[in-house]
Amino acid sequence: WLARGRVATLGPAELFFTPQEVAALTEDAEAIHAATGGWPLAVDLMARHGLSPRRETALDEYLASEIWDDLAADDQSFLEACAVLEQWSAPLCRALTGRDDTLRRLADRGLLAPTASPDTWRPQPVLRDFLRKRAASPERHARAAGALEASGHALDAIPHRLAAGTPDAAAALLEKEAPALLSGGRHERLLGLLSALPALSPRLLLARGHAHRRANAFEAALADFQQAAADAAVAPKALAAAAAVYVDTVQPARAARLLRQAFRQTSPDDAEDRARILDLISENCVNEGRAAAALRYRRWGASLLTRPQRSVLDARILLRTGQLRAARALLQARQEAPAEAADGHRDDVLVLAYIAALEGDAGAAEAAARQALSQAHSPFTEAVAWMRLGHALQLQPERTLEEVIACYERAEAEAERTGVQRVRAEALMGLALAYAARGDVPRSYAHATEGMAITRSAGDTWLSAWLRLATGIAGVEGRHPSAADLLQQARNEMDTCRDAFGACVASLWQAVASGEGVEAAVARARDRGYGFLTERPSLFGPRRVLSQETPVPVESVLRVQCLGGFRAWRDGDEISPRAWKREKARELFLILLSRRGTAMQKETLMEALWPDATTTAAKRDFRVALHALSEALDPRRPRNAHARGLERRGTAYLLQSGAQVEIDADEMERLIGLASREPDASKSRTLWRRAVELYRGDFLEDYPYAEFAAGERERLRACWVRAAE
């Protein structure tokens, strides 16, 4: 027991020589370390006897006399039989030699090194090269391929099939494995394996095209699909795949013709392929701004399938028809499903970031954009993520124009790498809005009109309508006489696209521009669920203009008082104690309220709520409490969705204030921030006073012994004391 915790384990990482240590033994350190991997025995042999990887013959002779000849005949035959393997596991070695007991003995002698996989080894580099020169043959590669296929490692078998001189067998394996590689986001490995084949079948050309499409190499993808389409057997799939490239890059005019051809050539009996093409047609209609048609094609495709699944396409249709809340709920529900490979602008997180920016939830928009950036695997995805980050930052008053512009410029740079001009349009729209908010009308108008030229060429009438709205907003900000006409055009275009949210925003800006009917326009926005447009800064909302000219008080959807006694109001009506149904539901909310904006793991919440319960019982009670909480806060929410402001991220939950939840503590801190930055002394005093008046008592003072509230209680009390001083 005295030694426990004090004994160091020496393994390969400690015993193998580093390049610096090899340099202390010999002058040819770089080449020797590259050849040996730091294997002490091999390094010693080369250093003591002046051998070098560049003198292969002398090195091989030395290995033969000093190591090989010293091995038993059974060990030699074992090593020769396994020589072509990259990694040596017991099942593979048993399949090739009939035994696996030799592995551990050879590893103990230092001839084999462990790998990251348990119970798997590889020969030391110099020994591997020696064995392959001695024992590699087409027959041994063929046996290795058979063993790998039998053990479920078909991809690893492909190089062996090629080395065995059977490229057709390698191609057949790759045809079977390609769909799994693509769906798993492993398109780079697929491209590497395909490059080793001497010729590609039409199906493999199709697979390579999909891999290039995943890598955003759109020209290469189109070339592959065009070549594959010459074969009648895969022509419908190739045409649909080529159309998908144009759908990816939002070029609906080019996609439409190919999609019609693909649908006509697809057999009526192939329900899955026809449904897939109908989904592409639906998405192409979304890109054209024809949301009603998109919904019809989406429903048609779903009707062909036995078990249709909700997808991000459904969320994009909801978004483009102005159903922001439903779109967000659908995407949040999909976060609980197994992760799929990110797919450019369709990625759930990127769509969530855009919706959050539209709703004025700057924190959620920024978090989602940064998450997408951390996972970006292509210039296309990265470009869209930088745009969405720019949208989020321009909603935050503490951010500078330079920070916002830097995001959009980075987005444009990544868009240039894709070679697709359409990708730039949203960045130009963001720049137009950023400059408009700061009164730089000429720059705003120039960016918006450049964006419109791109979207019109691509046939994207929906984004064209939003860019048109940006020109109208610039006109209002600059008091330009053309503002009214531009806003009316935007309103007409939104109506054509059936975008209820866009039409509402345009109508609200029209009222602001004319100075007439503002209160009625605000009331309509609120009635349609878009009250956030005047409650907080949002991407297209006129809140700043309204706050200067016509302040209009608008109640938040959910209001929480936590300074003093805890109370909550839903749509203006106080939530009664009975509405919570279970005390644990309210306690769960209070814990999340104490850590609002921070994701808390489910296990942490269960431990806080049921410290003495079994895991099974805690999980059951947690589901019940979470459901009761959602019912209390948001009984009219979409089915299977969480309550407003309540988000699930993997196995963690958090409460977000801002977009759907107004919390008095957050409002106090916001006012303190504004007061500290306000240069006008009179206005600053008013802000300080409003902040102080919000402090009705300590945070959750009716829960004085709740440990989870203690830290937040002390922090907010300190904020109030400083503000009062």
What's a concise summary of this model?
This protein has 725 residues and is mainly alpha-helical. The chain is globular, with a radius of gyration of 32 Å.
Report what the structure shows.
The strands form three sheets. The protein has a four-stranded mixed beta sheet. A three-stranded antiparallel beta sheet has the order 1-3-2. The protein has a three-stranded antiparallel beta sheet with strand order 7-9-8. The protein is built from 39 helices and ten strands. The longest helix is centred in the C-terminal third of the chain and has 19 residues, at 615-633. The protein is globular, with a radius of gyration of 32 Å. It is mainly α and 725 residues long. Strand 5 and strand 6 form a beta hairpin. Helix 15 runs antiparallel to helix 16 and helix 18 packs antiparallel against helix 19 (291-303). The two termini are 58 Å apart.
List the helices and strands and how they pair.
Blueprint: H1 12-15, H2 19-23, H3 29-36, H4 40-49, H5 56-66, H6 73-82, E1 88-89, H7 90-97, H8 102-108, E2 112-114, E3 120-123, H9 125-135, H10 138-150, H11 154-163, H12 167-183, H13 187-195, H14 202-214, H15 218-228, H16 235-248, H17 252-265, H18 271-288, H19 291-303, H20 312-320, H21 324-334, H22 348-359, H23 362-375, H24 379-393, H25 401-418, H26 424-437, H27 441-458, H28 461-477, H29 483-497, H30 500-514, H31 518-527, H32 532-535, H33 543-549, E4 558-561, E5 567-570, E6 573-574, H34 583-594, E7 600-601, H35 602-609, H36 615-633, E8 646-649, E9 652-655, E10 661-663, H37 664-677, H38 681-693, H39 707-724
Parallel strand pairs: 4-10
Antiparallel strand pairs: 1-3, 2-3, 4-5, 5-6, 7-9, 8-9
